[in-house]
Design goal:
CATH superfamily of the largest domain: Vaccinia Virus protein VP39
Bound molecules: S-adenosylmethionine
Strand order of the largest sheet: 8-6-7-5-2-9-10-1-11
Number of helices: 14
Strand content: 15-25%
Number of strands: 13
CATH class of the largest domain: Alpha Beta
CATH topology of the largest domain: Rossmann fold
Shape: globular
Distance between the termini: 54 Å
Number of domains: 2
Structural class: alpha/beta
Order of helices and strands: EHEEEHHHEHEEHHHEHEHEHEHEEHH
Radius of gyration: 24 Å
Largest sheet: 9 strands, mixed
CATH architecture of the largest domain: 3-Layer(aba) Sandwich
Helix content: 25-40%
């Protein structure tokens, strides 16, 4: 089948926020992500493994948040911002920082997903319930499709608690029109179901010619939202790379088969040892992998080699952020100002005071020196005084200045 997407398979070695910001909207058919879970640990691959040298941290402070881009959250999603701020009270400042970091990225993932696309977020009970609320804000609660429970055995058990043996995969669609290839992911019935009365099952199916919904379907059963799949064991020498938190290929293949078709574009913005890319490649999909860890490149080359038994197909590996080509450049002008003035209801976007239009100035939310461009989404109106204080700095700086100066009640101050 001909590839529907003409995007070249690409591995980006960079912070995924920088990459996502440079990708065009509605580009990707399926996104799977397995980000750090806020486990407060440092992960490193064992010496001697194929992934030796790879590591990533899973500890969060406010320093991990991209302050230049906080404003896209605070201005464009004030309700989500309020919710995230409240987590500092219900949980901790570290969780608030983690959720802010995730929300900034998920907003961009939602933008680059096609309207018919599907999104799978792999998490665990540490932050899963907080992340689901963020997804309800960004994707809309009506687009929540499944909470998939990946259950497994093995490993240690706590003395005074039930053994924690599952992860959660939250599945959302971007709209109510989305791909779900049920027949690709049916699973075989256990032998006791078929053994219970195989002759009746055959007769019923053959005589009516139509599956009546009660007898076993010969192609397998409709999968439930709990998936017993064993994690990789030390004995899985061929598949295991040693990369910490590597997920089994069989898990990813099920997701890719269910929610994409051949030639579709699959993205994993936290791709680790590139399991999603390998799964997509084997199933004839195009792929984009992003990871901040440069070791991913070597592992992917090795894994694709192994997968095909021949030299891997060329793919692009780069640390350069792409540049969006779907944004219309708009110079700051009077019509832009009039539109912004209406949208901001005459308020300065920082201090919140009301001004006449002539006393408000057009400002770049993300300064041009930090990659912000001349396009409408990057403009706001600030009063002269706020604009002077901000200069080329992030909005966060200005907000904190105003917060300490005025301590205005009822306003949202990130990191306060
Ligand atoms: C849990 S691991 C993913 C494992 C992956 N599913 C696999 O099967 O190998 C999370 C990955 O996210 C990467 N990461 C963390 N923050 C990132 C960021 N801001 N941008 C890109 N990658 C990031 C880490 O380097 C790590 O490889």
């Amino acid at each position: 089948m001909l590839a529907k997407s003409n995007f070249k398979n690409t591995l980006y070695i960079n912070d995924n926020l920088d990459i996502l910001l440079g990708l065009n909207s509605e580009l990707v058919d399926l996104i799977y992500l397995d980000p750090p879970f806020n486990s407060k640990r440092m992960y490193s691959a064992p010496v001697g493994s194929r992934a030796a040298g790879a590591s990533f941290k899973d500890m969060w402070t406010w320093k991990d948040v991209d302050e230049y881009r906080l404003d896209s959250l605070a201005v464009k999603c004030p309700e989500l911002t309020k919710y995230i701020s409240s987590v500092a009270v219900s949980h901790s400042k570290s969780m608030m920082a983690y959720l802010t970091y995730m929300a900034q990225r998920i907003i961009e993932m939602h933008r680059v997903l096609k309207n018919t696309g599907t999104f799978y977020l792999h998490c665990n009970p540490t932050a899963g319930h907080y992340l689901k609320i963020i997804l309800d804000f960004i994707f809309d609660k009506n687009n929540f499709r499944n909470e998939i429970v990946w259950c497994y055995r093995g490993g240690g058990v706590p003395r005074n608690d039930f053994a924690k043996k599952h992860d959660i995969i939250l599945r959302y669609s971007k709209s109510n029109k989305y791909t779900f290839n049920l027949d690709e992911v049916r699973i075989p019935y256990s032998s006791d179901v078929l053994d219970s009365n195989p002759s009746r099952y055959d007769k019923s199916y053959r005589s009516s010619g139509v599956y009546d919904g009660y007898r076993p379907n010969p192609s397998g059963k409709h999968p439930e939202d709990w998936w017993p799949v064993q994690p990789l064991m030390p004995s899985d020498k061929k598949e295991r790379t040693g990369y910490p938190t590597q997920k089994p290929l069989v898990l990813l293949k099920r997701i890719i088969k269910a929610s994409s078709n051949e030639g579709d574009l699959v993205m994993d913005p936290f791709c680790g040892c590139a399991t999603t890319c390998v799964g997509a490649e084997r199933l004839g999909r195009k792929w984009i992998g992003i990871d901040i860890e440069s070791k991913t490149n070597d592992i992917l080359i090795q894994r694709l080699n192994l997968a095909k038994g021949i030299l891997f197909d060329a793919f692009i590996s780069t640390d350069k952020a792409p540049v969006r080509t779907d944004l219309k450049e708009v110079r700051p002008s009077e019509p832009v100002k009039t539109k912004l003035y209406k949208e901001q209801r005459g308020l300065c976007n920082a201090c919140g005071n009301q001004f006449e239009a002539r006393n408000l100035e057009i400002d770049h939310i993300v300064p041009k020196s930090k990659g912000g461009g001349d396009y409408y989404e990057n403009y706001q109106l600030l009063c002269g005084s706020c604009n002077r204080i901000k200069g080329d700095r992030p909005m966060e700086y200005l907000r904190l200045k105003i917060a300490t100066r005025e301590k205005q009640k009822g306003k949202i101050f990130f990191g306060d």
